[in-house]
Amino acid sequence: MRKKIFKRTFAGGIIKIVCLLMALPMAVVGFQSCQSEDDNQPNQVTEATDEVVVNLKPNTKIRYAFRIINEVKLPVTMMYYGDYVVSLPPDKQKALIDVLKKKDYILKSGSGEIAFGPDVVGNQMFLSLVLLNMHLLSNQTDWLSTMAELGIMESETASIGHIIFFQVPESEIYYYLTLFKRYEAVESADRNGINYYKNALP
User: Fold this and answer.
1) Domain annotation covers residue 28
2) Quick one: which of 116, 114, 115 has its CA closest to 94?
3) Residue 187 is assigned to a structural domain of this protein
4) Which of 1, 30, 131, 180 could form a disulfide with 189 if both were Cys (CB 3.0 to 4.6 A apart)?
């Protein structure tokens, strides 16, 4: 059952991509408002930026994703396809969702609900979360603590790994493309991440 739920089809991926493109302005606003609130500031970008989308291999752990983010010290607009599962009786599931809805770094819909989830099967909840501004150590630390406190586990059956959107100075784009590809967990790194996905739309 878990494999079935986490199985990504191309059509399903396109639907999520369209939703993410619609939500991108919200993510950018959140990124701008949070830049000065953390002592783990990325390198200050003073020139025009380009966007690089980095695809990690399936089942790459969130801690490894954070390691990459912290080492390159670049602003992160969003990261998604983070698949998680938690076992809870039905009467406690709403309380968990209410906790997640209060997290500023988790993307919500216009109605305030968590984007893309959850899927519920009996006592198991499957979450596919979009995380914002994860270059901030405060967000990373809070998410790892939240996972531990609420018993949220990373999926072992996801067919797609984390996808991370980095803001990169235009003059250094090729340097960072090369740098990202040196990481063992990186499946691909491409310039103009958002345009890349737009071009995949029918």
Assistant:
1) yes
2) 114
3) yes
4) 180
Number of domains comprising the chain = 1
Q: Is the peptide bond between 118 and the residue preceding it cis, with omega within 30 degrees of 0?
A: yes
The domain of 74 spans 2-84+129-141+157-199
> Using H for helix, E for strand and C for coil, what is the string for the chain?
CHHHHHCCCHHHHHHHHHHHHHHHHHHHHHHHHHHHHCCCCCCCCCCCEEEEEEEECCCCCHHHHHHHHHHHCCCEEEEEEEEEEEECCHHHHHHHHHHHHCCCCECECCCCCECCCCEEECCEEEEEEEEECCCCHHHHHHHHHHHHHHCCEECCCCCCCCEEEEEEEHHHHHHHHHHHHCCCCEEEEEECHHHHHHHCCC
Q: What is the pLDDT of residues 100-150, one digit of tens each?
A: 999 999 998 888 888 777 888 888 999 989 999 999 999 999 999 999 999
For the question of whether the overall pTM of this predicted structure is more than 0.85, the answer is no
State the CB neighbour count (10 A cutoff) for residue 122.
Answer: 9
Residue 74 included in any domain: yes
